[in-house]
Amino acid sequence: MESVPVRCPVCSRDHAYSTPAYPCPCGTPTAPPLLRDAPAVLVGHRSWNDVWVTVRCASCDRENQWPQPELCCPCGTVLRIPVRPVVTGPAPAAPVSPAHIPLPRTAAHPRPAFRPMTIRTGHDAVSAAGLYLTWLGFRDVGRPGAGPASGIDLRADGLIARVDSSTRPTTLRAVETLWLNALGASATGVFFSLAGYATDARARADGVELPLFVMDLTGAPRPVNSPADELVSTGA
Question: Were both Cys, which of 51, 58, 62, 207 would link to 93 (CB 3.0–4.6 Å)?
Answer without folding.
Answer: 62
